[in-house]
Design brief:
Elements lengths: L2 H14 L11 H15 L4 E9 L2 H11 L4 H8 L9 H10 L1 H9 L1 H10 L3 E13 L6 H4 L2 E4 L2 E4 L3 H6 L3 E4 L4 H15 L14 H8 L12 H10 L4 H10 L2 H5 L2 H9 L25 H10 L5 H12 L3 H17 L4 H15 L5 H20 L1 H11 L5 H11 L3 E3 L11 E3 L4 E3 L10 H14 L5 H8 L8 H9 L4 H4 L8 H12 L19 H12 L6 H7 L9 H5 L6 E17 L2 E10 L2 E7 L1 H11 L6 E11 L5 E5 L6 E3 L1
Parallel strand pairs: 6-8, 11-13
Antiparallel strand pairs: 1-2, 2-5, 3-4, 7-8, 9-10, 9-12, 10-11, 12-13, 12-14
Helix pairs in contact: 1-2, 3-4, 3-7, 5-6, 10-21, 11-20, 13-20, 16-17, 17-19, 18-19, 20-21
Amino acid sequence: MKIKRIRQTTAKKLVNGTLPDIDTDFTKASRSGTKVYMEERFGKSQVCSVGTLDTLQLRGLIKDIARILLINYDDTNNATKLIENEDKTIIDLVKRAAKEPKLKHFLQDNSDLFNLLTVLLGQIRNKSMHACAVIVFPEVMSASEWCPTRLHKGLIVSEWGGEEMDNAGFLKLDVLGLKQLDKFQDIIDLIEKNGKEAPDIYNLPHDREVYRYFSNGWNSDVFQLGSDGLKKYTKSMKPSCLEDLIITNAIYRPGPMNNGYHEQYVKRKHGKEKPDYLWGTEQITKNTYGLLVFQEQIMAVCQQLGGLSLKEADDVRRAMGKKKMNVLLEWESVVKKGFIERGATEKDFEKIWHAMIEFAKYCFNRSHSACYAQMGYISQYFKVNFPIEFWTVSLKWAEEKEYIPYITEILQTKAVNVSDVNINNSEAGMVADQKRNTVFWGIESVKGIGENTALQIIKEREVRGKYTSFADFLCRHDYRGSAVKKTAIEALIASGAFDKLYDYKGKEEKRGQLIKRYRKYKKIRVSNPARDQYTIGKLYERWWWLRQQKLLTGLSFIDYKTLAEESGILTQFCSNMEFSQPQKFEQFRTFGGFLIDVRTGKSKKGKYARLIVENNYRTLTVLVWAEQYKVFSEILKGKKNTFILFSGNIKYDATYSKSNQFTLNERSELIVL
């Protein structure tokens, strides 16, 4: 199954209405593929993209005018900071200025700016193209004859916006290309390369193990369901079928969440709360336990209880969603009449009508949600049934910030192993070793090593065999014009790429000897030792080299207990069991990790800090309250991206983090390596 086939199959299902459209990341390559397919299907002259117009907005326009009038930058910046996101008009600005004296004085001192603002606000800033909206025109005339068009980067786009095209009655389709489909294709290719039969992703069986993963919150790199919040939500919801995933995608959104409907749904699903059905809506909202979650449910209420046609019901839904109160007022009496005729009281109607208007502000389209759920299920199915292929592709596509949640889940599920960069096993990107059930970190993942360098190393290995020693590696890449230069060689050493050749596991400080040998062989003199990262610092300490590896590759597993013992902290070290299970009672323990961030704040007692620490891809919070912060603030200053060891009380935080967290106290020690 090739990616072109996947894309075209998806596009065909979108056009035929058998697969809902997908609102997600859009890639240029994918867009050209789907657009070309649409042109082939309906004719090049009958298809165009929808144009968009960006207008001058309040805060940005003030900055633009101030720059032209040479108004002091700091004064402008301080004034615009006082303008809220909901301030859109001149009236909003005046009201805001009445509340904010600094903004008021700024506008009074710069009257020319204010005068220009009243003229320019809302004017067109630039023209662009909608990411996914495509119009298909009747064959009677070409696109340019049906509506005004223009060229945008070589593509025909409409001068009218999406709403104008809708009002004119044209067929508007959301046709998006998906990065996720490219990832699926990579997984399928790797499955076939490993000699297995790839599944038909559009006809996957119901798999209980897939839903067990969702119920455990193991959703990393699962389409639309991989955020920390959704991991926790599926863990509490315990989805057991595709319908649950569809509802999850729709209900875990700002509107329903602000009203607590996502939590209400979980309680009703698990029998902790009885559904409360509005008059006549039980059959319509049975699957959602009495909650209006989807736009289609609003349409069903209008059609079945209000007596409207589907077209009329959709008009009501659209007016509700876009808060067009003048349009809604026209429909209210019509819908009310239908309710009364079917036996509802005026009170019943008012209650339902009010609920519909409130829900419509954030109701999600079920067809969108169904497609999100389908893609999420496919992602999780691959992870469960083809873990080595799934994780190889996921890590290949991942950004560095995604390494922590991905590797955390790999360690939790124990489905595959992950290995450091290895000069004899690693490829340019992530590579799967099926026999060892291991994903080897890619050579290109090492900072400072580009594609040409990695390819030269791999090609040489393929032609003349594996490297037998560091000296063998040097001899084979030491020639004029070699892409493997000093910076790359030293980065490979520091990242541990040669460790397996010399059994340096647990003796990582010996990497320094390789760098010394290399520099002696090449007669390299360091002109400025203070700026040379490999001749300063703790050159002969193991932790220092592990830190270099983590900074260079993002991958490093650390024995923090041994580091604590070497550093003289002898308090009982926190065990994996204590860390992984909620600690209801405080225990004084020693722990360690990689300091990701130091977030400070102020309380009545003074400044405090919240340390975000990663311990072998498990993230935890360390609280340093005001009294302890006075003691440790200097130690912590400017110390991010290094290892720390500390002792303190560990206890489960049921209120905020929903996890174990450490708190430093008067007995605590804190060492920054």
